[in-house]
Amino acid sequence: MSYGLAAAHDPSVGDYADTSPEDWGGTLERSTGFGPSSTDRESSPAYRRRGSACCARLFGFRMTMRRAAYTMVLMDPQYHETMMRQALELGAVADKEGDMGVGAVIVRDGRIVGRGRNRIHTGDPLVHAETDAIADACKALGTDDLSGSTLYTTMEPCPMCAGALLNVKVGHWVLGGRFKAVGRSFGKYSVETFAEFVGADITFTTGILQEDCQALRNRYFARK
Ligand SMILES: [Zn+2]
User: Fold this and answer.
1) Under 8 Å CB-to-CB from 215, ≥6 apart: which residues?
2) Would you call 42 a catalytic residue per the annotation?
3) How many CA atoms lie within 13 A of 90 on its CB side?
4) Is 113 in contact with 98 (CB distance < 8 Å)?
5) CA of 158 to the centre of ligand 1 (A)
6) If DSSP states are collapsed to H, E and C, what string results for the chain?
7) Catalytic hit among 130, 156, 192, 211
């Protein structure tokens, strides 16, 4: 089965490792890539200017088409399920490690750029699946600005993670489990009330593999 870009960038391959800032619209110098030339014509400033302008247009067109295709992919519920399954796999690792089984991935332009899992009870109470994925994505992309990214998390982000996601500008949150459904209460908090409270323009997609996500998270409490 094909998921458009998901097929071209199979998340199971973990291809964020070869991600470079140029892939996300960084400087053009390296991607235009004019190498040493043996002819006067090719080394002339005019030739270089024409070549650079042409490559810049091609680069811009390629990025525009890529983002347009990715926008179409985001409308496909099966694409969200594919990415959520990646988050579930990470949550299963946390579960095996004895922690609460929550996992998260951050996706930009069809590629997984960050992966995370809960280590609340097995190492560091500040390392939740979302903050772990944020740190991973920032390291991979070399920036703390994750604008244009989508978060997939197996559980609704807690208030700490919601603040962290806001700080790094992740504007689309795709959720599996919900606190209300598993009986976890933060008072009046939900991701929706959070967005309203801080005045943030966040897009939410909810209910993706919700039962699977909640069942994985609840395994921790079943062991208690
Ligand atoms: Zn959290």
Assistant:
1) none
2) no
3) 28
4) no
5) 4
6) CCCCHHHHCCHHHCHHHHCCHHHHCCCCHHHHCCCCCCCHHHHCHHHHHHHHHHHHHHHHHHHHHHHHHHHHHCCCHHHHHHHHHHHHHHHHHHHHCCCCCCEEEEEECCEEEEEEECCCCCCCCCCCHHHHHHHHHHHHHCCCCCCCEEEEEEECCCHHHHHHHHHCCCCEEEEEECHHHHCCCCCCCCHHHHHHHHCCCCEEECCCCHHHHHHHHHHHHHCC
7) 130
Contact 90, 104 (CB under 8 A): yes
Q: How far is the centre of ligand 1, averaged over its atoms, from the C-alpha of 71 (Å)?
A: 27
Distance, CA 211 to ligand 1 centroid (Å)?
A: 19
Instruction: Give the integer Cα–Cα distance in Å for 18 and 102.
Output: 26
Residue 3 alpha carbon to ligand 1 centre in Å: 29
Span 149-192, pLDDT tens digits:
999 999 999 999 999 999 999 999 999 999 999 999 989 999 99
Q: Extract the tokens encoding 136.
A: 């991973």
Q: Closest Cα partner for 101 from 112, 92, 110, 114?
A: 92
- pLDDT tens digits, one per residue of 99-125: 999 999 999 999 999 999 999 999 899
Per-residue pLDDT tens over the stretch 6-21: 333 333 334 333 333 3
